[in-house]
Design a protein that fits this description.
The structure is a homodimer. With about 100 residues, chain A is of the alpha+beta class. The radius of gyration of chain A is 17 Å and the shape is elongated. The first copy, chain A, binds a DNA duplex (30 and 30 nucleotides) through helix 4. Chains A, B: This is Transcriptional regulator (ArsR family).
Chain lengths: ~100, ~100
DNA sequence: TTAACATATGAGCATTTGTTCATATATGTG
DNA sequence: CACATATATGAACAAATGCTCATATGTTAA
């Protein structure tokens, strides 16, 4: 058994950062949104339609994903087109999905 | 923009499974516990001491991690010695940590 | 400009979550 | 056996979370 001072400890800032990423991925609706956006850019209404969510719920979750810089968007006419902005997080998501699908 | 039926959709069971894994990793104290256990086997009291948590809090979280089969344990005298039981999840954790440390 | 559409945002609410406190269970010791 | 030690577990509670409803903001079209 190691002494406490021999452990590799994590900076609290790193712990918080990683926690935010995993929290973002942990919610089923955000997971589906990110998985959808990893396949194609979507405007907000499309996400709501495909995932059967309300416009408001989608928008709230997009605000959260935006704050974490996991998605970005651009305006296209009346719509805002969202897409993934963090390949590494998408990679984590795909790995976890693969793991769950091939246990 | 794809039609809904052209998307790769995730089975609800897979979504739930992945969600549980990410939820487990998302809590700072569970994250520290798993990170610690990935470095060495620990008995419950040691985890509590190293991470500055109560015995009860540690035990509750271990029960959760056990239910997800992320940790296993064996008895050793009066103590229960816990260790990681899912290399893939540890790999996800380490990747996320690396990503946060080298942004 | 005005009306319609697309999205964002704030408040309120029900659910989930992580902790503490008290107590139960199980093992080792004299 | 009786007692101490190590861990587990249930109840209760505060904080965080994700949704809905109502409304605000911004863009396009007439």
């Amino acid at each position: 058994m190691m002494k406490a001072e021999d452990h590799l400890f994590l900076d609290e800032s790193v712990v918080e950062e990683v926690s935010k990423i995993f929290k973002a991925l942990a919610d089923p609706t955000r997971m589906k949104m990110l998985y959808l956006l990893s396949q194609e850019e979507c405007h907000v209404g499309h996400i709501a339609e495909v995932l059967g969510m309300s416009q408001s719920a989608v928008s709230h979750q997009l605000a959260l994903l935006r704050a974490l810089r996991l998605v970005k968007y651009r305006r296209e006419g009346k719509s805002l087109v969202y897409s993934c902005d963090d390949d590494h997080v998408i990679s984590l998501l795909r790995q976890a999905i693969d793991h769950a699908q091939h246990p």
